[in-house]
Amino acid sequence: WRQNCVPSILSEVYSKHDMIILINLMDLLDDTVPGIGTYEDFNTIDWVREKSKDRDRHREITNKSKQSTVALLFSISDAFSGWLLMLLIGLMSGALAGGIDIAAHWMTDLKEGVCLNGLWFNHEHCCWASNETTFQERDKCPQWKSWAELMVGVSEGPGLYVVNYFMYMCWALLFAFLAVILVRAFAPYACGSGIPEIKTVLSGFIIRGYLGKWTLIIKTITLVLAVSSGLSLGKEGPLVHVACCCANILCHFFTKYRRNEAKRREVLSAASAVGVSVAFGAPIGGVLFSLEEVSYYFPLKTLWRSFFAALVAAFTLRSINPFGNSRLVLFYVEFHTPWHLLELIPFVLLGIFGGLWGAFFIRANIAWCRLRKNTCLGHYPVLEVVVVTLLTAFLAFPIEYTRMSSSELISELFNDCGLLDSSKLCGYTSNSGSASGSVNATAANGLGARLAGPDLYTAMWQLALALLFIPSMAVGAIAGRLLGVCMEQLAIRHHERDIFRGWCSPGADCITPGLYAMVGAAACLGGVTRMTVSLVVIMFELTGGLEYIVPLMAAAMTSKWVADALGRESIYEAHIRLNGYPFLEAKEEFRHKTLATDVMRPRRGDPLLSVLTESGMTVEEVERLIADTTYSGFPVVISQQSPRLVGFVLRRDLVISLENARRNQEGVVSMSPILFTECDPPMSPSAPPAVKLRSILDLSPFTVTVHTPMEIVVDIFRKLGLRQCLVIQNGRLLGIITKKDILKHMAQMANRDPDSILFN
Amino acid sequence: WRQNCVPSILSEVYSKHDMIILINLMDLLDDTVPGIGTYEDFNTIDWVREKSKDRDRHREITNKSKQSTVALLFSISDAFSGWLLMLLIGLMSGALAGGIDIAAHWMTDLKEGVCLNGLWFNHEHCCWASNETTFQERDKCPQWKSWAELMVGVSEGPGLYVVNYFMYMCWALLFAFLAVILVRAFAPYACGSGIPEIKTVLSGFIIRGYLGKWTLIIKTITLVLAVSSGLSLGKEGPLVHVACCCANILCHFFTKYRRNEAKRREVLSAASAVGVSVAFGAPIGGVLFSLEEVSYYFPLKTLWRSFFAALVAAFTLRSINPFGNSRLVLFYVEFHTPWHLLELIPFVLLGIFGGLWGAFFIRANIAWCRLRKNTCLGHYPVLEVVVVTLLTAFLAFPIEYTRMSSSELISELFNDCGLLDSSKLCGYTSNSGSASGSVNATAANGLGARLAGPDLYTAMWQLALALLFIPSMAVGAIAGRLLGVCMEQLAIRHHERDIFRGWCSPGADCITPGLYAMVGAAACLGGVTRMTVSLVVIMFELTGGLEYIVPLMAAAMTSKWVADALGRESIYEAHIRLNGYPFLEAKEEFRHKTLATDVMRPRRGDPLLSVLTESGMTVEEVERLIADTTYSGFPVVISQQSPRLVGFVLRRDLVISLENARRNQEGVVSMSPILFTECDPPMSPSAPPAVKLRSILDLSPFTVTVHTPMEIVVDIFRKLGLRQCLVIQNGRLLGIITKKDILKHMAQMANRDPDSILFN
Fold first, then answer.
1. Is the dihedral of CA A496, A502, A503, A508 positive or negative?
2. Cα(B232)–Cα(B696) distance, integer angstroms
3. What is the arithmetic mean of pLDDT over B242-262?
4. b/e per residue A533-553 (b: at least 16 CB within 10 A)
5. What keywords tag this UniProt record (chains A, B) (predicted)?
6. Among B540, B557, B644, beta carbon nearest to A730
7. 3-state secondary structure of B497
8. Contact B502, B510 (CB under 8 A)
9. Which residue in A142, A167, A257, A429 has the fewest CB atoms around it within 10 Å?
């Protein structure tokens, strides 16, 4: 394609000489032997090598760019391709997120009824379009029919509730069944939150297909189905996964990113910022989330680009306007009442609650996953999902707050009660009368504007029930709102007491129960994910007011401390460990006083380290060594007697080169010598030709000494992204430490099973 | 003190045994030989060693904490001391920033006149206190007397202007003279912006006294004096310096931070976030500034703590309320009109202007500094400041916009004209009449609410003049406002044209000139400092609206690209290079294809590398080697014949240990052997006793091979914070690469003078 197509387009404009340069540029990284420098599935990349490759490529382009105009243009387009890619990721992810929101909204409402004006309207849009709606009862209109009304034909009666209940469960079941079947049939990687896997991928692990187009399609559809079926899940994880899939697919159109695993991971880091940006409508929070939680290698250039992509996505989502209020998310809020210093006590209490809940949730979740893994429960995933969905739907329908989708619930809980609010949560005595009720009521005692009425009490009971089986952010929001209303009533009823003096002033609210809901949500999310800065910034972006940062921060800090005291791992790390992924956590410092010699292979008593010598080995000997061992690379030394290090060669490169030599190089037989040396040793003319492999030899492998403390070794591995490191004593090669060895050692030091680390 | 005081306080509560543990804990890091492990002035620290020291300390405390309650309490207080320190830094910096704002405001007004009600009132407060002020003319009141009124005694007349002019210049001169004298006499480090030095310090350099108490006191006073004298300078640099001084002083009260250079630098990173937080009232922006611009080693723990400190400082500043509007900064704004897509063109133009201006400013500034350094101009700093001040004051007084302080100017430029605004910049025809003018005017053509009036034209001319000699953010703000007003008038006068259709709707503004001012300010600041994310986030925090991020981002991006095309360095980096500080830039990748062998010392032809052998050298030989060379460390090898690496020893540690041995160890003479070995070699009983120095030997020095590409070496130095690295070939020690060698090499590759790197 390349040789044929490009000249025909450009030949009229540019000279032949330019053309050749252009083609050379495009072929820049075509390897001499195909396959060298690539990785196998479920292996870790070598960051140093990938970054070197990219620098070589950049150097080449820069040098060429001085030679001709075409090459200069190519170099400029290459420099801007990163920005273009970010733009595309932002647009695509924003559009997908908007589509998911609209579809999920519509399908959630479909469980309850249908719009006669058009099947494609959800409840809210259906009644907007209707003229017969009053502002007070804007969710009731004749065009919207519940399933019972449609099927039985009357609009009142005792059987209606049962029919609606049944239809609700049927739809939920259908959605959940479809979702689980789709995942199992087409894209097994689409299951789960995705963040643990993405963290591992970003740290350098390769899982082919995890971010492919099938995963994207199925994940998008199943996310809609799962949300609509009422299964409780956070949207941020799946949206991060969706954004990363978009990024990975779009990377294929840019050579720079397609060919380089390290560069691709920079893009994926930005994509995870995009995912959070559209999930919460918080671009800055998204970037900080990516920086704090997900990313492994996050250079400043990526920071700036992530920010750009996150903004593009947020604005794309806004122009799609899925919630009809030109806000990015359903639960955007504006508070007006300031908070009082004493309120920090309930906020800290919410933090403690969030921490406890987070620690409990992580343990329960991991225990369930372990149960599924180790017992026969794991063989019937469809059945499991169906049962869980039926149970959820059965319990959810009777209570108003569990029947709605969790975004709607959170939105209602965060809401600050206005004068015109019809929600039961705003069922204060004075609000039930007229719109100006609060002004009238102040005449009585100057304050009583916010005494709880019967509606509010009902709502509180229902919320308390909902608390029992709704997970994630919503739990925190419910707990917060309950505490908030209690505090409010306390302050109103005892407003003459010293401690509450000054809280309630005529005409204004005493405290904001919605703020408590938000603080509670932040505390629970913090307890589960152990986010800190990004969590506070996300919540700040939701409220837009700097003054509410202090309560959020107090709760997030308490929650993290409490949760950390009960278990150091976040839900993501716990899942990474459960799955045995090779992930070297950057947050936790390695605190043990072991040395490199304690970790390196071979151990004392083991057979000697398998090494190659720089000369003197034959093709057959090397092939036997490869067949006999499973190591992913071999050190090359001067000779077995003088094990002084020359370099390191990767197994995959060696295998490919030997196959290539056997196939393409004339006269290569099993007895051909293999040479890693710079200049050929003298050989008899009758000897078979040598296979020269210095080109695949890494001449600058990383080394440490046997006395190097493991804390420093771990630091080097983390910061430089190594796969392996050789251990030297006084110039002699003694052993090797791989990432897997380090992870096993860390597991051992923490009294866990070192064999739980599965991959390289 | 320790032995005497602590028991007397606590002896009644805790047993003797606990006491001993507590004292042991406090003495934890008292070195056996004092001085070992410390650094000399103008040297670079070894990050790896410092972090190891801290981990050792932490391990010790954790182990002890299992033994007794006191030790457990100590370990908990140790864990929380970081948070306490952050709280104190936030409080102290916030209070200082508030004080500086208030004092500068008062002294700026003092140049024009004095308040009769009380000398300590500034102009605004003076007239607030007065009852005779109307809302329209709130800055005119009889209590506030200009100097001419006070001295001549009449309130009208031709001579008044001249007297006021003279007094203005006198005061400016006095302030500037005081400032420069104070700096010269007491704290020479207090001069300059401070950010280049702080960047260098954070990267591991030691400048004793740069963050000391004298610097803090003098910097605070001179900042007030300089701002009041009208010398144009940005406040963010000095405030970052002030916050870092606070942090450094407060570190002295916490052993953990006092004794460890790496830990102290974590705190300083947080302090620089605090500085920006109080300068712009933007805590999140401050943290990102520290992350993006200033910090070298910024672990996630520091991110979270910086955020906490920045928030505390912002709230402290707010409770001091220096501007009387419960805002953090003078130029907080709220815009209401949305922007149009087409407006991106002027925004990008502002970005180009900002980039050009930034590049020009950096060159001019560096050229001036170089001139001052290389000619006799540098010998008369007082004269220089006096002349500049006189010139500034002379030119500034006649124009209203240059007479006010630059914060006030920026505040006025950012301002969105309300109905009641009395500023000349809001001198639109319809505003000059009544408060409801805009409503009346709309009756005429439905739009004309914002046609420029004569006042606005005057303001525009004055601004255009001011543009000529005001530096920093204000230039951008002026240019932006000018462009904004032009665009506004264009849109109003041609509102029937196709491209402006829909911009102006009745009763609302067409566009927001204040937004243009903000975009322009961001562009210029971006051009000078090359900030990106942090700049946009700071401006976002000033406006509070997510929708204005896109214009800011467009301008910041353009500005950075344009400025980078004209010169890669920001003002900070240019000053670092000018001063020859050893700073390894983390943003710029090393792009050249050189190898470690090209950089290492000794070069080909040079004398051999100075090494020590692990045995066989005498005290005298080592002392002679130390006297003959200036290297800051020596590799230790097995023998001269077999140069296989054993370890590395620092010059300072060696000198101190030898002196200590000569003084305290019995029988040490010049012929005593020096041993770095683990076990003693056999010696004759009559030989002098050996000096055993294995304890000061670093057994795990970092090594690279001669074939290692320099790009990887640079990466290792940056990421691990090394001072030096040894170069090995096939197990033989060949040379050494220090940070200074790398910097010299980088200077050489960029065609600069390698001898401009002055320090180690």
1. positive
2. 51
3. 93
4. bbbbbbbbbbbeebebbbbbb
5. CBS domain, Chloride, Endosome, Ion transport, Membrane, Transmembrane, Transmembrane helix, Transport
6. B644
7. coil
8. no
9. A142
Nearest CB among B541, B553, B701 relative to A308 is that of B553
In chain B, which segments carry CATH 3.10.580.20? 596-756
* B residues 207-226 closer than 8 Å to A (CB): none
Q: Looking at the complex, report in whole angstroms how far the Cα of residue B152 sits from the nearest Cα belonging to chain A.
A: 49
* A contact residues 548-577, partner B, Cβ 8 Å cutoff: 549-550, 553, 557
In the prediction, which pLDDT does A412 show? Answer: 80
User: A-chain residues within 8 Å CB-CB of B55?
Assistant: 589, 591, 711
| Domain A82-320 belongs in CATH node 1.10.3080.10 | yes
Contacts for A684-692 with beta carbons within 8 Å, 24 or more apart?
Answer: A689/A665, A691/A619, A691/A657, A691/A658, A691/A661, A691/A665
Distances (CA, A) of A403 to A279, A408, A410, B75, B261: 21, 10, 13, 49, 57
Give me B353's structure tokens. Answer: 């202007």
Which CATH fold topology does B341-425+456-576 show? Clc chloride channel (1.10.3080)
Which H or E run includes B733? strand B732-738
Superfamily name with CATH number, domain A345-417+453-578 = Clc chloride channel (1.10.3080.10)
Residue of A nearest to B530 (CA): A304
- The 3-class SS string of A611-664 reads CEECCCEEHHHHHHHHHHCCCCEEEEECCCCCCCEEEEEEHHHHHHHHHHHHHH
At residue B36, the 3 state secondary structure works out as coil
Separation CA A338–CA A515 (nearest Å): 10
Residues of chain B with CATH 1.10.3080.10: 82-320, 341-425+456-576
| Secondary structure of residue B758 in the 3-state scheme | coil
The Cα A663–Cα B249 span in angstroms is: 71
Determine whether B240 is exposed, middle or buried from the number of CB atoms within 10 Å of its CB (0-12, 13-18, 19+).
buried
Chain B hits for A533, CB-CB cut-off 8 Å, are: 287, 303-304, 307
From the list A304, A532, A711, which residue is nearest B532 (CB)?
A: A304
**pLDDT, tens digit (0-9, with 9 covering 90-100), for A325-383:** 666 666 777 777 778 888 889 999 999 999 999 999 999 889 988 888 888 777 787 88
Give the contacts of B138 (CB within 8 A, at least 6 positions apart): B127, B128, B422
Q: Where in chain A is the domain with CATH 1.10.3080.10?
A: 82-320, 345-417+453-578
Joined together, the tokens standing for residue B399 give: 């124009």
CA nearest to A587 within chain B? B300
Write the CA distances from B630 to B596, B622, B652, integer angstroms: 22, 13, 11
DSSP, res A137:
T
Residue B14 CB-half CA count within 13 A:
19
**What is the CATH T-level fold of the domain B596-756, as seen in this structure?**
CBS-domain (3.10.580)
What's the pLDDT tens digit per position in A483-540? Answer: 998 888 888 888 778 877 777 776 667 788 889 999 999 999 999 989 888 998 888 8
| pLDDT band of A276, cuts 50, 70, 90 | very high
Q: How confident is the model at residue B8 (pLDDT cuts 50, 70, 90)?
A: very low
Helix (H) or strand (E) run with residue A674 in it: strand A673-675
**Torsion angles phi and psi, residue A512, rounded to 5:** -110, 100
- Closest by CA to B231, choosing from B33, B471, B63, is B471
A-proximal residues of B, 573-592, CB under 8 Å = 586-587, 589, 591-592
- Tell how strand A673-675 and strand A617-618 pair up: antiparallel
Largest CA distance in chain A: 114
The phi, psi pair for A75, rounded to 5°, reads -65, -35
